[in-house]
Amino acid sequence: MTVSSQVKQTLASLKGAQANFETFALQTQNQQAKQMYQNAAHQTEQIVQTLERRVEAMEKEEPQYRNI
Q1: For residue 46, which of 2, 35, 52, 54 sits 20 to 30 Å off, Cα-Cα?
Q2: How far apart are the C-alpha atoms of 37 and 48, rounded to whole Å?
Q3: pLDDT, tens digit, for every residue of 39-60?
């Protein structure tokens, strides 16, 4: 497994985690828990954006990594 495919797999997992945090925030009635889940979703979103930029850079540097 290449680094590119590992990063893309991690990115997909993080997007799933972010979606779960958002769902948990919507489902809970506990305001403290809701805030915690929203914060976690926001932090995860920032990481996702950083990794997406890294994937773009890898694909520019190494075109063979596209569509892996």
Answers
A1: 2
A2: 16
A3: 999 999 999 999 999 999 988 8
